[in-house]
Amino acid sequence: MVTVILVSMTVLFFTSCSSDDPTIPQEKLGNVIEKSCSMTFNGQVIPFYLDGKELVHTRRTSSDWADGTNIYIVFKASSALVYGTASYNNSHGWSISYTGTLPSGQAGKCEVYYFENTPNTNYSSIQIGDESIVYADNEGYYEYNQSANTCIVNSTLRPAVSRIRFKGDAGTKITVSGITRYTSYGVSDGKLDKKNNDISLIVNNSGYTSYVYGFLEDESEREISITNGDYIYTTQCRGDVFALGESGYMNVPTEASHSGWTVKQAMQTSGAVDLGLSVKWAACNLGANSPDEYGDYYAWGETETKEDYSSSTYKYQSNYSYTNIGEDIAGTQYDAAHIKLGESWKIPTVEQIQELIEKCTIEKYIYKDIKGQRIVGVNGQSIFVPISGYKDGRSIKNRDEYGYVLFWASQYETSYTGSSAYVYRGRQDEGQTNTWNRMYGLPIRPICE
Question: Residue 33 belongs to what domain range?
Answer without folding.
Answer: 7-159
